Amino acid sequence: MNTNWSHPLEQQTVRQAFIRYLVPSILGMLVVGFNFIIDGIMVGHKLGSTALAGIGIASPVYTLFVAMSLWIGMGGATLYSTHMGEKDLLKAKQIFSKSITIILLATLVIGLTAFSFKDALVYALGANAETFPHAADYMNIMLLFGFVFTIENALSIFVRNDGNPNTSMYAQITFAVANIVINYVMLYVLEWGVRGVALGTIISAFLALLVLLTHFFKKTNHLTFTRFKWNWKLLSAIALIGFPSFLAELGMSVFSVSHNVSLERIAGTDGVASFTVLNYIHGVVLLAFLGLASAAQPLISYYHGAKQRDREKLAVRLAGWTAGICGVLLLLIVQIGAPYFVQIFGNFSSTVTDNAIYGLRIFTFAYLFMGINFVMSTYFQSIGNAKMAIWITAAREMIIMVALIALLPPFFGITGIWLAVPLSELLVLVSITIYYRKRSLAERLSQLSIHN
């Protein structure tokens, strides 16, 4: 154990540290989010709503790989920061080395295995005869080369947790700018269609990875590969702590598939296309909330490891208030701008446009609760309370949401589908409030018994 060094978080107030992590984290995520929107605009204008729907159907494969990188990346990085707070550098380096090795091997195996039954997988995700060619072109590239962006994504988390949020932001900006330029070339110059869009994503992720590698040449770097043993207890800890992040991203696949299947049944390809437009916009909001929670995570993990409880709680409060304010602002912006946001994706039929606008105006009420749920899930994850973090994630993106999508449409039609997410987010926030109050009461009673 090495105690002869001082972490930057020791030299700043909680507010200073939170802002230092928050600004680059949210900016980086928003740039990536706007990149996805510009991608959608280019695809919608060049290839039309059917190709857009095809990408939406295949997107769960991309989401699954991101989920894998977040599972191991967040689990490993949380333990990394905790051990840095404990001043145990050797253990922190071993966790980093093990995490990167695991994510590389896991995504290679999953990608190659899924590629062997790729056509059946496309149909299982909700494709029909119209959307199959586009969905297959996108998915096949992702299965073969997805390991590139899983490594990039996991490494970005570790770089941020190693006290360098700016380099993570630069990598995200590199990815976004490169993706826009490359996809323009793929679509409008080479005319490679959806396959070119998928290749552009992989190439852009590789360029972002090169930016992240510059962190290893900085004097402040503590991320070095070192020998490690396959300690199954430590591996289990990484997997358990990171599992809520995996569920959160996997939940996006459940979110996409459940909406695609339900809308295809009720409204056909037009319904799926309207959801894909909504999902592009929603993706930006999710990334903003993820950026906010990601900014709080290194602070909470470090303060928890250093046993600085007051600073830990202040970091959570700052993140929670920021999430609540952002949720109100995002709701107002999308309510007012919904027609304009939908129109920029292309000249679709009135059915697609009207469904997307109507869906957005109902769906965005979820933002009032979603950001706070993100923060609280990250908080419980960062302090090692994986059970509560898993409940929050599974309930809001799978258990309650899927139940509502199954129960509401028979009574409310397509409106029931749009209502599922706002209602699930509200119910989860209620459950968090009840749990948190009970826990706080138990802590106060415990302190009183000690004093008495």
Nearest-angstrom radius of gyration? 22 Å
Q: What would the average pLDDT be, to the nearest integer?
A: 85
- The helix count comes to 15
Q: Give the H and E element order.
A: HHHHHHHHHHHHHHH
GO molecular function, one term: xenobiotic transmembrane transporter activity
Pfam family, one: MatE
Protein name: Multidrug export protein MepA
Subcellular location: Cell membrane
Folded structure, characterized:
The protein is an all-alpha fold and 452 residues long. It has one domain. Helices cover 85% and strands 0% of the residues. The chain is built from 15 helices and no strands. Helix 7 packs antiparallel against helix 8, helix 9 packs across helix 12 (367-382) and helix 12 packs across helix 15. The chain is globular and about 60 Å long. The mean pLDDT is 85.
In short:
This protein is an all-alpha fold and 452 residues long.
Observed structural traits:
mainly alpha; single chain; 15 helices; 452 residues
Give the secondary structure arrangement, pairings included:
Blueprint: H1 14-47, H2 49-85, H3 89-115, H4 118-124, H5 132-145, H6 147-161, H7 165-189, H8 193-213, H9 232-305, H10 309-343, H11 350-363, H12 367-382, H13 386-407, H14 409-412, H15 414-451
Helix pairs in contact: 1-2, 1-7, 1-9, 2-3, 2-5, 2-6, 2-9, 3-5, 3-6, 4-5, 5-8, 6-7, 6-8, 7-8, 9-10, 9-11, 9-12, 9-13, 10-11, 10-12, 11-15, 12-13, 12-15, 13-15
